[in-house]
């Protein structure tokens, strides 16, 4: 019997590879003769770098860059095994979780550090970029990223704008004459799992600004500033991006990467799946196991288990899933091909206890699920296959 384990991380407790290893440990107690394929995965958000580095035998690169408020932070990116593909999580250099609630200010926060990561990867020889937009603290439309790569954003006096989304309200001209010339050699794929436009009630500022600490007044100011930015992108660069689905992702970084990097916005799991060669990986297996930290009704909207289930369903493979916890409307996952879902928490406990006990809990529930599966196979007389 061949079993593929393709899981995302359990946030704050287990990396994607640690999740796969725990599930395999539990299953091996019952199926010691089985062949396992353990493959860490992600959907373009947190954990994408570590998943693709592990899966392709790449490397992690650590570098000091400007953080979301401009002060230096220790960030990272991944280089996959081919040596030419850089995987960057925006949250590593401009992440919301890098700031305390009191520090969060989307009017001042910058994506400059993300641009610095791109420049560093260019120096390393990378020419293919995968950029995950999730978890940003910013609302600057990737203006800081562009400035780090040599673009000049100028006010009506010809002075460089300071960092942050609010400063874009004074943008009078964009000069890209000195932008990083190696960018023309690059292909950039941006993992983007939202379809929000840049502006308006469904735009970057209105939808995501409050999550980053913006008041209603600040939301309005940021939306106005991004409108100025969009006009300049169109008039100075010939890039009409404000209404493209996903332009509003990560505080408008979708729009900025489209305009300055000629990026292609794609669902995060699709990018990861192609990098992993997931369809070929699953083709010979008998059972597919997937999972993430919380499985609920939102899982079907482009999360890793949904992507894995879609590939498995095309191949006619059964799928079960494990989650650190199960949430509202979890039954929706059955409609996308996940036959059964299991929570790893085995007793009433605090969040801190659940996080601390994540590995033994996951091994335990995986072992019990495997034992149930073995019993069913024995009763049906099919002891050699799922």
Automatic annotation (TrEMBL):
Signal peptide span: none
Keywords: Kinase, Transferase
Gene Ontology terms, MF aspect: glycerate kinase activity
Pfam family, one: Gly_kinase
A GO biological process held by the record: organic acid phosphorylation
Family to which the UniProt record says this protein belongs: Belongs to the glycerate kinase type-1 family.
Protein name per UniProt: Glycerate kinase
Organism, scientific name: Acetobacter aceti NBRC 14818
